[in-house]
Amino acid sequence: MSVLVSGANGFIATHIVDNLLEAGYPVIGTVRSATKAEPLVRDFLKKYPAAKLSIEVVEDITAEGAFDGVLQNHHDVKYVLHTASPATLGLDKPLKEAYLDPALAGTLSILKSIKTRAPQVTNVVITSSFAAIYGFNKDYVTYTNEHWSPLEWEQVNNEVLAYCASKKYAEKAAWEFVEQEKPNFKLSTICPPYVFGPQLFDWMAAKKLNTSNELITKVINTPQTTDFLEKPSGIFVDVRDVAKIHKLALEKEASYGTRLFIGSQTFTGQTILNILNKNFPEKKLAVGAPEKDDPNKVLGFNIENVLESIGGYKFISLERSVVDTASQYWQMNS
Ligand code: NDP
After folding, report:
1. CA of residue 287 to ligand 1 center, whole Å
2. Is the peptide bond before 232 cis (omega within 30 degrees of 0)?
3. Whose CA is nearest to atom 31 of ligand 1?
4. Of all protein residues, whose CA lies closest to atom 11 belonging to ligand 1?
5. What number of CA atoms fall less than 13 Å from residue 261's CA on the CB side?
């Protein structure tokens, strides 16, 4: 029984595919163009010579029935992981077309195809985001998987908000679909906050990085400043943990039907800078205001119920994640 992974060439999805292949699952990955998949297939097969990996091109995930063909070609799909969604800032399109449409219509399109073409599918996991949870509160809030972002599309006036709203609308639509359509499969969603960590294959770090890791490279490349105490800031989780938890969401029955809000620890840009200066003093980066950093005041989160549902979990630390990300970045960009 195989696993279908949409957006298989993405930062997070390549780690997911890696985990699945390592565990022996046959994987079908969808991408927008075959050329994006070629170097990945080559390197995956080098790493796992016996791997069962096939790639299908789905040019436009928003089209009605976009995934019908893929599911018809692969009657053995048991699990679906839907990761494909616009996650990059700087898209040169109107906000709705760039973010909301692909996120929302893409999610509904794959769910409808699974329901009508692949009734044998038992589990669907959608990669949502902490953006679907975060409340933009000025006061300190301890977030849980019961929180929903209050953001409405009408309030959106920039790319960050468009991204946040797209994730909320897509996740809500998925839960509503399941409630109304009562498909055969169980739905879970994964809500990671900022995802840092190395690219699966080193050559991927020589390209433009994903938007979340760019927070780290921005800190690296900014001259002396104290501006990092407030911004960026948030909760972080390492990509290797995000990938493992996608696999656990298929395997741990207690997590079925859950919003898996996950996170390792809170940070500010200064926290990242402090880690970089401690581990790479020779790089002579900005110093900022190390003694003033207080990442705990950013916001709180309580994910005990989620961790219980997957049988407990110990996350990679921010220090290890930042060190691994920065090392790979310098190795591939110097
Ligand atoms: P990437 O940009 O690396 O991967 C996104 C994937 O989605 C790519 O395969 C991309 O294809 C595909 N995609 C993007 N836009 C479209 C579109 N319009 N139509 C079809 N496919 C599209 O990002 P991440 O790996 O970081 O993100 C993966 C998922 O995780 C997303 O759903 C994102 O919202 C979510 N997430 C990410 C976080 C992070 O910090 N990185 C945090 C929380 C959630 P292509 O390469 O062709 O553009």
Report:
1. 32
2. yes
3. 85
4. 7
5. 21
What is the pLDDT confidence band of residue 24, given thresholds at 50, 70 and 90?
very high
| For residues 22-51, average pLDDT | 97
Which tokens in the block code for residue 169?
Answer: 């609308």
Tell me the CA–centroid distance for residue 286 and ligand 1, in Å.
Answer: 31
How far is it, in rounded angstroms, from Cα 293 to Cα 243?
Answer: 30
Q: Is pTM, for the whole model, over 0.90?
A: yes
Handedness of CA 93, 94, 99, 100 (dihedral sign): negative
Q: Which CATH superfamily is domain 2-196+235-266+300-316 in?
A: NAD(P)-binding Rossmann-like Domain (3.40.50.720)
Banded pLDDT at 208 (limits 50, 70, 90): confident
Distance (Å) from CA 194 to ligand 1 centroid: 13
Question: Pairing relation of β-strands 142-143 and 186-191?
Answer: unpaired
Tell me the three state secondary structure of residue 329. Answer: helix
Contact 280, 250 (CB under 8 A): no
Binned at pLDDT 50, 70 and 90, residue 324 comes out as very high
Task: Please give all residues whose beta carbon lies within 6 A of any atom in ligand 1, as ranges.
Answer: 7, 9-13, 32, 36, 61, 83-88, 102, 127, 129, 167, 192, 194-195, 210, 212
Tokens representing 328?
């790979």
Q: What is the mean pLDDT of residues 79-91?
A: 95
- Token couple for 155: 């309030």
Domain layout of the chain by residue ranges: 2-196+235-266+300-316
Distance of alpha carbon 216 from alpha carbon 199, whole angstroms:
13
